User: Fold this.
Amino acid sequence: MLTIFRKELADHFSSTRFLILFCLIAMVALVTTYMVGASLHSNLAGMAKPKYVFLYLFTSQGQLFSLAQFIAFFGPLIGLIMGFDAVNRERNAGTLSKLISQPIFRDAVINGKFLAGVVTVSVILLSLLLMISGLGLLIVGVVPGAEEIARLVVYFVVSVAYVSFWLGLAILFSIILRSIATSALAAVALWIFFSFFISFTSGLVANTVAPVDNPQDVEQVMAHDRISRAANLISPVVLYSEATSTILDPFRKTTKGLVMMGRLEQISMQRFQNPLPLDQSILVVVPYLTTLLALTVICFGVSYLTFMRQEIRSV
Amino acid sequence: MAAVIETEGLTKAYGRQKAVDDLSFRVEEGEIFGFLGPNGAGKTTTLLMLLGLTEPSSGSARVLGFDPVREPLQVKSRVGYLPENVGFYHDMTAQENLSFVARLNNLTQEVARERVEAALVQVGLDGEREKLTGAYSRGMRQRLGIAELLIKDPKLIFLDEPTLGLDPDGINRMLDLIVSLAKNTGITVLLSSHLLHQVQRICDRVGIMRQGRLVDQGPIKELALKLGQGREEATLEEIYMRYFQEG
Assistant:
């Protein structure tokens, strides 16, 4: 497995697509950081330093979007691009039947490919985080505290799991579909659906299941909101955004919408503006994290099983 | 002589259709055995089962004394398989492709370097080792495929349609290479083909397959005698046509 892992890793790093992808992402990240950093700097001028300024680099929206949003949105693309032709390209080139007729277990092929993808993704994300932090230090001039660094580490781990989910999905498509173009399209279609259309769909579902006839009726509004949120959470994009925005923002204490809060909760939200410690923040989003991880594992598991049962012959 | 391959009622069914049906045959050490049959007769499926790449629905096989279902790694480390359309990583040179295979076979660096060297010389490609395999002609690719098999120092090689799509010169070089491997290094060769003259030229024995069944097997001369209707010198083509016209 190590041999395949090493070859795949070398392939990833020497490929043109890796270079293009990395330049693109680095460029957007740097520009965004610069804008966010500059506006933070001017906003903070003359004020006493608030807590956790450093994390604002990732969460505050500059002109366009925050960096956390950017990763939630474009992170999947990294995974998809790394994986969409992992298996079917080798199948079409005839190297797959050669590979599995060597004295290795068949799962070494798929494990090696997945692992190499995960490592590549980790390297991309890590260097991205470091670049942003470095630039942020320069522009804002605030050194992150231990708490903030810990939050960033958690954020990094969750992000790797999130992108790995998309990597697993792309590999799954590349196993099932023989044509490279089809698997790329299928993966991108799913990505677009989960990032753009999921909110329409969940709205539709909620309107059908629990229509709101009377906006004054609290019960109805709450039922509607509950269902639309539940439907939204099918999307890993939503899961990830909710989870990471809580992890990166110590002042976010719940993932509930305002509608769902009782009166007392709303008041306490407004009155008590103390940040949560990291472990409490994580506790709030544990269900999200578990679901995200489970999705990744399921996705890889299905690819693994399909690949092991598939008959491979040269065509 | 010891049996290198021995199968007993080997059957592979896809749904209700039997791709290989109750196949029993033996291949002895050092011989060149040819599988003959039209496309879709179950030749490739048989090879896959012998390598442990697909599981038989029933029946059993022993390859070099190992059971391919239970000990696929033992079989795969001793048997070389050249698929019908062999592929290489086009962005790597011939030498790099072979070194990669050597690493997959867990060879030490020294042994790997020696074997890659020897294999390239043996198939006559040592002059083009630094070329990317994307630039190889089909004939060269096929010979590189043979070199790749030699990396693992096999006792037995399976060649699936080794001469398909080659020009006459390429076919001759390929056939000579196969014969020299069998005669000089004692490698047992099992090849499948539907190109009769070529099989006739190099094979010691042939097995004729039709719709998953082994219709007949034996040395070409014997088959000719059996079917020749008095004429002793029937060609393989005539034998073949008889089998397929009857059905």
Q: What stands out?
A: Chain A has 13 helices and no strands. Chain A touches chain B at residues 3-4, 7, 90, 93-105, 311-315 (CB under 8 Å). Residues 2-309 of chain A form one domain. The CA atoms of residues 290 and 296 of chain A lie 10 Å apart.
